[in-house]
UniProtKB/TrEMBL annotation:
InterPro entries in the cross-refs: Atg17, ATG17-like_dom
UniProt superkingdom: Eukaryota
Coiled coil: none
Membrane topology of the entry: Peripheral membrane protein
Subcellular location(s) per record: Cytoplasm; Preautophagosomal structure membrane
Keywords: Autophagy, Cytoplasm, Membrane
Family: Belongs to the ATG17 family.
A UniProt-annotated Pfam family: ATG17_like
Name this protein carries in UniProt: Autophagy protein ATG17-like domain-containing protein
Molecular function, one GO term: protein kinase activator activity
Listed GO CC annotations: Atg1/ULK1 kinase complex; phagophore assembly site membrane
Biological process (GO), any one: piecemeal microautophagy of the nucleus
Domain Autophagy protein ATG17-like positions: 65-313
Amino acid sequence: MMDHTDNAATGRSASLIDGQLERDGHALAANYERCITFRMLLQEISATMTMRIQAVESSLGVSEGAFETQDAAVQDMIQAHQQVEEDLRAIFTALKHQRVDPAMVSGEVGKSLFDFVDADTVMDLQRQAQSHIHTIVESRHNTVDSLELLRATMSFYQGLDFNGMVPLSSDGQSVWDALGDLCQHLQDELFECKLRHTSLQETRHHAAVDRITEDSSALVKASSTALNHLTELYDVALLYFVDMEQCDRRILHTFSAMHDTSQAYDAALSECHVLLDELTNLLRFYERFLAAYEALPLELQRRQAYEATTRRLVR
């Protein structure tokens, strides 16, 4: 009678163990399937964000290079314009001080060479140039602000660290590469738990009951812990992704605004070069005008001497 009772108890115990092992096996399988799902989602987020970050970095680099080229050209143009304005002021001062012989202007007294130049045209050209320069300087400030905003955005995304949950294996490793390594490690952990549980089921008849149930429970706990870690990583990655989706609109708007600013910048710079050429030509003309008048007395003396010599020869 006791043997029959013991056998019945042993049977119930084995049935309970088999039931727990089966439940734990299902739990481990479900955890592993969820792990695969989360890892695939994380891979998609990682690939998308990496691609977008690289695209913005590339566009930012091109924009910075273009700005440096434009800025150098503008600085040269502004310097050249300032020099022309300074030279024009100097030549106008010289023209004002150069009195004209009344005999050369129908007896009018007090005339200077400045009275015979179109100063209004020069000043109008200078005002136009200054207006374009103001546009250029304002555009430059807007571009600088846009570049700083983009750099700050890139710095933020390059500094993402998943709240310290993703260890970097080296200083040069990106957080997204490290995330991929960590996801692989967690998946390996869950797969190892499945394998060990399968082995546990196969050897359950040769091990102590308490040891089997403890090991099975420990494997489920380890699997759940790894899955929870993966879930937390996904939650953070999703927040990053949603944030970037919102930032994308601002980034695109910033690049679009920079493009419009650059076009206005180039147009104003082109107009400035045209005006600078006109002012330079006027400057050269006034310099020749002044030089010709200053040389006039000597030319008159030369002609008078020539006429006197000619008259003597005729006689």
